[in-house]
């Protein structure tokens, strides 16, 4: 493989990684309601993890400025109402 072939291969792979496979996602539809479905549980604080609940599913989540993750029971199942 000479230098030109290598450059073409790297350019193609870089474009594929950055651009993604758009044709795979073109038929995807999102069935999300426009209503905000999370409700705050307790007082919101920027320093600590806060808890919210999804009104549709009842699943509880912990979040702060940097992350959001579901709350789990001791047996590993999702904490729900």
Quickly count the helices.
2
**Low-confidence blocks of residues:** none
The percent of residues in helical segments reads: 25-40%
N to C succession of SSEs: HHEEEE
Count of β-strands: 4
How much of the polypeptide forms β-strand, as a percent range? 15-25%
Structural class of the helices, strands and pairings?
alpha+beta
- Rg, rounded, reads 21 Å
Per-chain topology:
Elements: H1 3-19, H2 22-25, E1 38-41, E2 50-54, E3 60-63, E4 68-70
Antiparallel strand pairs: 1-2, 2-3, 3-4
Q: Would you mind describing this structure in some detail?
A:
The protein is 26% helix and 20% strand. It is of the alpha+beta class and 81 residues long. A 4-stranded antiparallel beta sheet has the order 1-2-3-4, with no helix packed on it. The longest helix is centred in the first third of the chain and has 17 residues. It is elongated and about 65 Å long. The protein starts with a helix and ends in an 11-residue tail after the last strand. The relative contact order is 0.11.
In short:
This protein has 81 residues and is α+β, with helices and mostly antiparallel strands. It has 2 helices and 4 strands.
Keywords:
81 residues, alpha+beta, 2 helices, 4 strands, 20% strand, elongated
């Amino acid at each position: 493989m000479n230098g030109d072939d290598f450059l073409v291969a790297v350019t193609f792979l870089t474009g594929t990684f950055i651009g993604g496979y758009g044709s795979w996602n073109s038929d995807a539809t999102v069935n999300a309601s426009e209503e905000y479905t999370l409700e705050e549980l307790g007082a919101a604080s920027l320093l600590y993890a806060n808890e919210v609940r999804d009104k549709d599913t009842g699943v509880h989540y912990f979040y702060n400025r940097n992350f959001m993750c579901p709350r789990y029971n001791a047996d590993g199942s999702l904490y729900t109402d």
